[in-house]
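Hi C.,

You asked whether I'd gotten around to modeling the 344-residue construct. I have! Everything is below, sequence then structure, no commentary in between.
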Amino acid sequence: MNNPTRLDHAIAALQAETGLQVTHLQDADTAHASGAAPDGWLGIAPPGAPPVRFALDIRPVDRHQTLSAIHTRTQHRPEPLLLVAPYLTAEGARQCRSLGLNFIDEAGNAYINTPGCFVLVSGKPRREPAHPVGRYKALTPAGLRIVFALLTQPRLLAAPYREIAAAAGVALGSVGDVLADLQARGHLALTEPRRLLAPDALQEEWATHFPVKLRPRLHARRFTATARDWWKGQDLQALHAAWGGEVAAHHLTGYLEPERVTLYTAAPDALILKHRLRPDPHGDIEILSPFWPLAPEGEAGSATVPPLLVYADLMASSDPRNIDTAQHIRTQYLARHPDAQDLS
């Protein structure tokens, strides 16, 4: 069960607001036709009617786009879904009602629409934690580096803070604050071994904030090449570089013919000289500094940056081709499961 404390708070708030009888079905069979297990089951009994059995999806909702994504992924489930969130604003409740997405939160806000039972509560203020912590530390530049390391190298979840800091390239003191923020917002269970509770939601959060908070710090420079297809057949590992954006998507999916070239490298001079790249503020080649360790020369390593970064690069563009390809990468590379492998 993902974050049972959050569920208990949401159940108590729903009962206080509505008087409905709510039962946490802890021992219910969690398998269903899609092969993926929900976060648990809840029975809600309308007055004078048998209880309705809901599959639970417990996750934070920081942006309204998350609601649409949840609805899209679950609309074909055989049983009704109930989203359990820390808090949804009145606008979030309105969007849930528009989507037909049932939800409850810890403040008592709720939307439930099933035969014989209709509940709509919105506008209740956020429930403040008993012990406030630094919020959104995971969305600072250092925090985004740490989250990227955890998402692309799941083994780090069980690693000491010092190893996490080294992998993310941040100060050791940053790690504890970021993990506490992730735990407070329902992304991380700090019980041993640590585990991510909703990695898909955290991926979306990271991809949303990376272009605004971290990418501007990567010393981006633009260039133009003499040949448009200069990038084809190049071995970047010897140049301590990796493809990002459209070229990486081309390598990962074969689905996109690149129009713009994105590279991540800490030592661009050799590459610039070799391919006679000319500085051009409007050029279609962008070179950025990496914020994670690239594979050393001679070691096995990918020609592309991790798929999560490719996804973020594509989603940050306004090109419909890139957005479409990003969804292919999400489906093929970012769908997580219990035995997920490192993506770096």
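If it helps when you're writing up: The two ends are 28 Å apart (CA to CA).

Thanks,
B.
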